[in-house]
Amino acid sequence: MELRRRDYHVERPLLNQEQLEELGSRSSATGTLQWRTWFRCSHARARALLLQYFPVLAWLPQYPVRDWLLGDLLSGLSVAIMQLPQGLAYALLAGLPPVFGLYSSFYPVFIYFLFGTSRHISVGTFAVMSVMVGSVTESLAPDEAFLQASNSTVDVAARDAARVQVASTLSVLVGLLQVGLGLVHFGFVVTYLSEPLVRAYTTAASVQVFVSQLKYVFGLHLSSRSGPLSLIYLIGATGISYGVGLQHRFGVDVVGKIPAGLVPPVAPSPQLFARLVGNAFAIAVVGFAIAISLGKIFALRHGYRVDSNQELVALGLSNLIGGIFQCFPVSCSMSRSLVQESTGGNTQVAGAISSLFILIIIVKLGELFQDLPKAVLAAVIIVNLKGMLMQFTDICSLWKANRVDLLIWLVTFVATILLNLDLGLAVAVVFSLLLVVVRTQLPHYAVLGQVPDTDIYRDVAEYSEAREVPGVKVFRSSATMYFANAELYSDMLKQRCGVNVDHLISQKKKLLRKQELKLKRLQKENKLPKQAAASKGTSISINVNTSVTDIESNDVEGSKAKVSAGTELEDTAARGQEDAKAPDMSSLKTLGLPQPDFHSLILDLSSLSFVDTVCLKSLKNIFRDFREIEVEVYMAACHSPVVTQLEAGHFFDASITKQHLFASVHDAVIFALQHPRSSPVNPVLVTKL
Questions:
Q1: How confident is the model at residue 186 (pLDDT cuts 50, 70, 90)?
Q2: Can you tell me the distance from the alpha carbon of 323 to that of 316, in angstroms, rounded to the nearest whole number?
Q3: Contact residues for 434 (Cβ-Cβ < 8 A; gap 6+)
Q4: What are the distances in angstroms from CA 193 to CA 96, 137, 408, 444?
Q5: How far apart are CA 204 and CA 412, in angstroms?
Q6: CB 503 within 8 A of CB 593
Q7: Where do the STAS domain residues begin and end (predicted)?
Q8: Model confidence at 665, in pLDDT bands (50, 70, 90)?
Q9: How confident is the model at residue 207 (pLDDT cuts 50, 70, 90)?
Q10: Which of 3, 245, 329, 431 makes a 20 to 30 Å CA pair with 609?
Q11: Taking residues 272-282, what's their average pLDDT?
Q12: Residue 522 — pLDDT band, cuts 50, 70, 90?
């Protein structure tokens, strides 16, 4: 369908910043003192805080039992059936006895039911979190530290007790970090984890999980390793053991004893905090990133809102209270969340039902799973990795869509595989942030031209019909100008304008310096005859015995001298008037230097989002340098926060006023054409514009 062309006529006055502020009645935005509201005491305030931090009190009284209970019941049972083998299996990933996976499938799930805001995610054990915990427990409580002196075998009971203490303390520390970050509204921290980074990280973690389960699938007994290149050592040991045939026994490892009943709460070990804080922060951020990303997907699909800060608090309380009851850190599971949604789950009542089902298994039915082979649990883990391993297809899609994101994906994956999960995450975050800085240092710079019969200005290199306005250069950068790219902005501006500004300024200064030296030399040469004449005048003596004739003759000579002096004064005055009419000897034209083919420069600052001191200095230098070569500079399209920051930085003064700042590029172009600095204006062109 063809677009019908319509002619629009917009008539308004030309506006600079001063006129715009006067017309729009701009006033400085007064920041609300948020801290004052924190200390207000009222019934409404107390109720709002209660519902904010206990969301279950808001939605549970309004729960439609007839409509949703059956779906939540079926969904909860379905999730519990998945939660049981996953809990046992993911405990193996964490380097713990399987029963602690059941504990981690009960306490945190019920706590999230009370404090969470997502209605569909399934909180509990997760492969990525478990393997991160396993790398910590195996590094702080390795098998070598529990070798018995008598027969050089590992004291499994002592090792497991030490690892449980490490894992539960880690869970408490993760919970404290998450609750603290949530209370100070630090939920935005996950914005630094881009989607390619998270997907590559979980893919690499799934590869590590897959490799770690091979020893259970093949029934191999291998010493565990952690740290950089640990994945390579695992792979190598498995290949050697299986290829050489070191394992000839046919005994199958099973889950082992599952004690009935719940364990009493145990205080964490503060001595471990200093050694665990780095890993705890990484686990806290990764766990929250996975949970909030899934939560927002389901919230968008079903039309409700997820509070990121409250989610951080809810996950933190789940890990904090769970750690006291000897659980390891948890997050939400992708596969269980999909099952919870697809089987009819509407609220976290489904999560509460699944946790109660796990409680029944812990109390009464746990002994039924004591003879479950660990190879079966390993198979359960590997099957549940299918979704994350399918993320390898991101490589093809990112190659077509965005290769910078592909680079982030590959660096994250390789770093996580080679350097382990904690160091890999740190490398990935630092690399992605550095890439952001590099991309702001390499923005797209453009000289803009006017699209015919419009007030729209576009890059002349991209739009063939866009034409530069004669005598005016319009320059724009696609990124904000700050300390990292301010110098590059200035260099590219001078390059795109087609004038070697720095060379022209240096040549001008050199010629002016020569003129000044020549003038001083001429003044010095003219001063010598004047001094000689003055010395002769002072040496004339007056004869007292003078006759009348002499006096008369002297009067005649004196009158001649006066006339001569008056004539010299008139000549000097005439020369002064001629000098006043003469052209400025410091202009480029009189100095014989080439003049720019434009008289005005307009900086399109629409992409400027903030201003720092380096940006202020760079803008002032641009004004100074271009004025030095007789080009007037204007700014256009600044946002109000940027104008406020310019005012706060004392950018405007006697030489740069708000009259140099215009509401739009078109306003600045019209003003520049009507007020050229060194070139005549074409009135026909102004009328067309």
A1: confident
A2: 10
A3: none
A4: 29, 25, 11, 25
A5: 8
A6: no
A7: 462-672
A8: very high
A9: confident
A10: 431
A11: 92
A12: confident
* 219, 253 contact by CB (below 8 A): yes
Contacts of 524 by beta carbon, 8 Å cutoff, 6+ apart: none
The SS3 call for residue 662 is strand
Average pLDDT on 437-452 reads 89
- Give the integer Cα–Cα distance in Å for 56 and 352: 12
pLDDT given for residue 534 in this prediction: 56
CA dist., res. 449 & res. 468, Å (int): 4
Amino acid 276 reads L
What are 600's strand-pairing partners? 472, 632
Residue 224 above 80 pLDDT?
Answer: no
Closest CA to 664 of 4, 15, 5: 15
The DSSP H or E segment spanning 572 is helix 548-581
* All residues at 6 or more sequence positions from 203 whose CB lies less than 8 Å from its CB, including other chains: 388, 389, 391, 392, 394, 413
Give the model confidence (pLDDT) of 307-357 as tens digits: 889 999 999 999 999 999 999 999 998 888 988 988 889 999 999 999 999
Tokens of 294: 């899934």
CB atoms within 10 A of CB 135: 25
Do 113 and 351 contact (CB within 8 A), yes or no? yes
More confident residue, 64 or 366: 64
State the residue for tokens 């008598």. Answer: 150
pLDDT tens-digit series, residues 86-116? 888 889 889 898 889 999 999 999 999 999 9
| Gap between the Cα atoms of 4 and 185, Å rounded | 50
Type of residue numbered 530: K
SS3 122: strand
Please indicate, yes or no, whether the overall pTM of this predicted structure exceeds 0.85.
Answer: no
Nearest Cα neighbor of 205 from 375, 328, 388 is 388
Q: How far apart are CA 620 and CA 25, in angstroms?
A: 27
- For residue 467, which phi and psi values (nearest 5 degrees)? -125, 135
| CA–CA gap between residue 5 and residue 525 (Å, rounded) | 75
Contact 12, 654 (CB under 8 A): no
Token digits of residue 225: 């390793």
Q: Name the phi and psi angles at 562, rounded to 5.
A: -65, -45
- Token pair for residue 53? 């931090």
Category of 465 on φ-ψ map: left (φ > 0), alpha (ψ -120 to 50) or beta: alpha
Write a three-state SS string for 578-635: HHHHCCCCCCHHHHCCCCCCCCEEEEECCCCCCCCHHHHHHHHHHHHHHHHCCCEEEE
Of 120 and 190, more confident: 120
CA distances in angstroms from 580 to 169, 526, 569, 677, listed in the order given:
87, 21, 17, 20
Q: How far apart are CA 206 and CA 202, in angstroms?
A: 6
Residue 646 is predicted with a pLDDT of 93
Strands 457-459 and 472-477: unpaired
Chain-centre distance of CA 462, in angstroms? 29
Instruction: Say how many C-beta atoms besides its own lie within 10 A of residue 484's C-beta.
Output: 14
77: confidence class by pLDDT, cuts 50, 70, 90: very high
Amino acid 583: pLDDT: 55
Tell me: pLDDT of 493 over 70. yes
CA angle 161, 164, 165 (to 5 degrees): 90
Residue 62: CB atoms within 10 Å = 6
Sign of CA dihedral 641, 642, 648, 653: negative
pLDDT at position 28: 64
Tokens of 467: 């034409």
Residue type, position 195, single letter:
E
Distance between alpha carbon 494 and the CA centroid of its chain, in Å? 29
